[in-house]
Amino acid sequence: MIQLDNLVLLLIVFIGGGIGAVLRWSISTAVLKKTNHIFPIGTFIINISGSFLIGVISTLVLYNNYQLLNLFLITGLLGGYTTFSTYELETAQLFKKNKSAAIIYWLGSVAAGIIAACIGVFSAGGFA
């Protein structure tokens, strides 16, 4: 059974995630209507803005130890908005500590992500 404290934390993340997902959909839809569909500019805008926002918010929220705000904004809202921003933040933090590891993580994540997406597309294509 989930304790009340844990339920509140789950709800905070859930609400933030829902808002982030709706923002992502809204922005993607609006941008898609105004572009030529050749380049996924909506996703690009979301991922880059999410990376910027997670950098700003993590600096302001984490250093002030606002746990609930961190859960709502970073884990929830930006998690629903884009998971790419978390990857960008982790790469930036790793780069400060170990440049070689950061480069391996950066390139490896991109390459593995593209390969996994391609495998997923081709695998699902067999069932579609």
From TrEMBL:
Q: Name one GO biological process term.
A: cellular detoxification of fluoride
Q: Where in the cell is it found?
A: Cell membrane
Reaction(s) catalysed by this chain's protein: fluoride(in) = fluoride(out)
Activity regulation (UniProt):
Na(+) is not transported, but it plays an essential structural role and its presence is essential for fluoride channel function.
> What are the protein's UniProt keywords?
Cell inner membrane, Cell membrane, Ion channel, Ion transport, Membrane, Metal-binding, Sodium, Transmembrane, Transmembrane helix, Transport
Q: Which GO terms describe its cellular component?
A: plasma membrane
Pfam families named in the record: CRCB
Bilayer topology? Multi-pass membrane protein
Q: Which InterPro entries match?
A: FluC (IPR003691)
Q: Which residues cross the membrane?
A: 6-26, 38-63, 69-89, 101-122
Reading the lineage from the top rank, the first entry is Archaea
Binding sites annotated in the UniProt record for Na(+): G79, T82
Primary residence: membrane
**What GO MF annotations does this protein's record show?**
fluoride channel activity; metal ion binding
What job does the chain carry out? Fluoride-specific ion channel. Important for reducing fluoride concentration in the cell, thus reducing its toxicity.
Q: Which family does it belong to?
A: Belongs to the fluoride channel Fluc/FEX (TC 1.A.43) family.
Protein name stated in the entry = Fluoride-specific ion channel FluC
